[in-house]
Specification:
The chain has 12 helices and 5 strands. The protein has a single domain, classed as Rossmann fold, CATH 3.40.50. By secondary structure, it is α/β, with parallel strands linked by helices. Helix 1 crosses helix 2. 50% of the residues lie in helices and 11% in strands. A 5-stranded parallel β-sheet has the order 2-3-1-4-5, sandwiched between helices.
Length: 254
Amino acid sequence: MQESLKNESIYVIGFPKSGNTWLTRLLADSLKMRVGIGMNGLDKDEIATDVNTRLNLPFNTIYTIRKTHFLPNQLKKFRGEDVKKGVYIYRDIRDIIVSSYFYKNKKEKFNKKKFIIYTKNFIEHGWRNIGIWSNHMYKWEKYAKTSNANITFISYELLLKDTITQIKRIINSIKLEIPKDIHLKESVERQSFTSIKKYMNNLEKDSIPFGKEFNIQFLRKGISGDWEHFFDEKLKKQVSDKYGKLLIEKGYKI
């Protein structure tokens, strides 16, 4: 029924492991909107959709919040529409690397040697079919400047530090009515890392798409700065050599 309704899309865009799923759920909860997938297909297959559906969250607008990692040309190809409203969330590349390492090696204990090899490869090649971190951000920044799209940019770290203020800023930037503070506080609590992880831990193993284990690993820590526990001086230098300019531009220390 829901998927047959004609509605407009608001996109949550970002490089993988940048907080996209959290922001997607949070915006949908705050604005009482549907959650959908960023390509043609069944919206219920999106992880964020499943969580919000099981929480019995209401929706009452013509919009659907859609999460995507695609580059602009990929999104046009797979979704068949241009972005009109959206938010791009970015995160320190080093925390992305740590999060993606554990995500892709979820059944194994941390292995320093393997992590070094993984990090070097990630620095040079990024995420399969998506590319490298800096290219992803630069292309979306260019798209935002050269198209009629209304896209605001937000760091994961700032959103984590001052969630309600930043959610208000995002909603205001896409020219929608800002909900009352009490509703925003309830939404932030419902969609907090702790609440969602607790919710998933209470589910039966096969009761959600991709299985419980996938989703629990998908939500590992939800913090910033964790990379400092894993990067030695050589890895720090390799990242700064490749991405130092963009890291500084976005306010990260190197």
